[in-house]
Design brief:
The chain has 5 helices and 5 strands, in the order αβαβαβαβαβ. By secondary structure, the protein is an alpha/beta fold.
């Protein structure tokens, strides 16, 4: 059996640096939504773990495990609960999601709560995520994988 995928660490590194540098300006608070049983998500999360150490002005509020199956609903519920605990308007700067389904659920919860100031990122280039980005929602970025370009013989 062969597992041919994109470089998940690099995707995690790229989206994390984009979030921290370009979107957050090197400061603020962040929530991480992960699913560490998944090998690709582990590599993306490891990149996040490594990179946040380089940013003393970015504070990790919490890392939460997203349930699978049902990652959109799981992330939405997690974010609704975190918003109750972080109800001040600027208490959360961003939410880093290890893949797009949690980013979608998080975005839904933020939009419902009227928290348009919170930035969200994901990974995978999911068509629903891209649509939310294009609509100008909280979801600001994703990284698409080139599944067609991965050789599988």
């Amino acid at each position: 059996m062969v597992n041919a995928t994109s470089d998940n660490y690099q995707m995690g590194e790229t989206i994390t640096r984009y979030l921290f540098d370009d979107l957050m300006g090197g400061k603020g608070t962040v929530i991480a939504l992960t699913h560490r049983p998944h090998p690709g998500v582990v590599k993306r999360s490891n990149a996040f773990d490594d990179i946040i150490k380089e940013y003393p002005d970015i504070k990790l509020i919490t890392e939460q495990h997203v349930e699978v199956p049902g990652p959109i609903e799981s992330a939405r519920t997690i974010m609704e609960n975190l918003l109750l605990a972080n109800s001040e308007k600027d208490s959360v700067t961003a939410v880093w999601c290890a893949w797009d389904e949690p980013a979608i659920g998080t975005t839904q919860a933020l939009m419902d709560a009227g928290r348009s100031e919170v930035l969200v990122t994901g990974v995978d280039g999911n068509s629903q995520a891209v649509e939310l980005i294009n609509e100008g929602t909280n979801l600001k970025a994703t990284i698409a994988q080139n599944f067609e370009g991965i050789p599988c013989n």
